[in-house]
Specification:
mainly alpha; 3-stranded parallel β-sheet
Length: 198
């Protein structure tokens, strides 16, 4: 989300972009202020409890591959999470991290609508997760359709864009399939250096 906002606010400082499962961050939107005057994009229903024996990864530490990170990286990640999660939230107020995410999504939506500095042919790779969350079949199909729609929207601003699928990966692609992320960065760098299509 930060990379996408930076690219929208400082387009002349960005030569290319790699988004890693960014569509997940875009599934939810803040309800429009002042009632139902503006139509908000369709949102998925809240996920039901995971079926017996299946655990949905909420934080990176819930991902099975989190244990493969170095002890120092795991300790730093857990410490950083405590800095946010440790803060008391006011009753009726969204958790701080979610509140900030929804603000960022709204800013990114506004940048997309403006389009005074479109990305043109700057290389853009969007990496999507290969594994759907453990949800009942009707809900997971809804999730797949919305997920595909959001990835298409992310790719559309650039005429030099592509989607990469990270097979056998959940949301935390950076630890499940870091090889796909590294490959995507390499493709973007080559496209910039050679002034070529991805």
């Amino acid at each position: 989300m930060i990379a996408r906002l930076y690219a929208g606010q400082y387009p002349n400082d960005v030569a290319g972009l790699v988004l890693v499962d960014h569509a997940m961050a875009m599934i939810n939107r803040r309800p429009p202020s002042g009632g139902a005057t503006a139509a908000s994009p369709p949102m998925l229903p809240p996920p039901p409890p995971s079926p017996a024996g299946l655990k949905m990864a909420i934080g990176m530490e819930d991902d099975p591959n989190f244990a493969k990170l170095s002890a120092r990286d795991r300790e730093f990640h857990l410490w950083a999470n405590k800095q946010v999660r440790g803060k008391a939230d006011s009753p009726g107020k969204l958790p701080e991290g979610l509140d900030m995410l929804l603000d960022c999504v709204a800013q990114a939506d506004a940048i997309d609508k403006d389009q005074s500095h479109p990305p043109g042919n700057k290389p853009l790779v969007d990496i999507s997760a290969g594994n759907a969350p453990p949800l009942p079949p009707p809900v997971v199909e809804q999730w797949r359709m919305k997920y595909a729609e959001l990835h298409k929207k992310l790719l559309s601003p650039s005429t030099n864009s592509k989607e990469l699928l990270a097979e056998n990966s959940g949301h935390f692609i950076i630890i499940d399939r870091s090889d796909v992320v590294i490959d995507a960065i390499g493709q973007v760098v080559q496209s910039i250096r050679n002034n070529s299509k991805l």
